């Protein structure tokens, strides 16, 4: 299931940085955040290919990133609108192709939360857990009125290379430094990201997997190979299927696998896919949800074991035994 963007995207306003709306100032471990995803690069190292649309594990790179920041109050993608797996807001730097700082400023105009997660659209292994890890230090320290509080948290890879587009920031700090850079240079167009990050007080977290980005076809090949490894392929496949079918359901896949194993071993091999299908159908009839799936799975698994018990020698002799007269 994909979301089709509006045919006439909102046009960006003046290219000068905006102070933005007043943030809500909410704090705590569940304080709201917004997300800005930069997806409008030229992808020169991929020969100009539409990189956000390249599929890894059956899902577009952009959709994988959008899934990781699904808890954002507002998600803004800075790029030309396209079909996505979930609705987002669209923004564009003026002029298009003006570079990451101009794109970030365009996205920030649509945000209101105290905290903003800034991401590139080429992160195949980013997940919701990593986004929460980035936000946690900012949420714990509260609003940025304390001089000791960091302005943001970013990931580094195994070699210590910083990833400013896999990061969480205080929105106010971003707007402040973007305005200062625009005042100094006349515009943000063409300025590198390091001009922003060197002006901020940042905390760094090392994560060689979540920080992996796809700049080349070799990177794409490596990402595709990794998700097909034994330890990842099943979760990746289930996520891709749910995404394709528009299913937002978190179920115990371990219980379903146990059921499929029991049905295949205790009954017959074709019983496994048919039984799991019937479990899904029964769960839907019962209103859906993880509890309904779990209950149907337990019933079917118990039935498979009872079925197997009837095929044991003791069960056969018991079936022909005379009733107890005493």
From TrEMBL:
Residue ranges constituting the DUF6457 domain according to the UniProt record: 230-311
MF annotations from Gene Ontology: nucleotidyltransferase activity
Matching CDD domains: MobA (cd02503)
Pro residues compositional bias, start-end: 1-20
Alphabetical UniProt keywords: Cytoplasm, GTP-binding, Magnesium, Metal-binding, Molybdenum cofactor biosynthesis, Nucleotide-binding, Nucleotidyltransferase, Transferase
Top-level taxonomic group: Bacteria
MobA-like NTP transferase domain ranges (all copies): 35-187
Keyword Transmembrane helix among record annotations: no
Region (Disordered): 1-34
Listed Pfam families: DUF6457, NTP_transf_3
Alphabetical list of PANTHER family matching this protein: MOLYBDENUM COFACTOR GUANYLYLTRANSFERASE (PTHR19136)
Protein known as: Molybdenum cofactor guanylyltransferase
UniProt organism field: Streptomyces dengpaensis
High-level lineage: Bacteria, Bacillati, Actinomycetota, Actinomycetes, Kitasatosporales
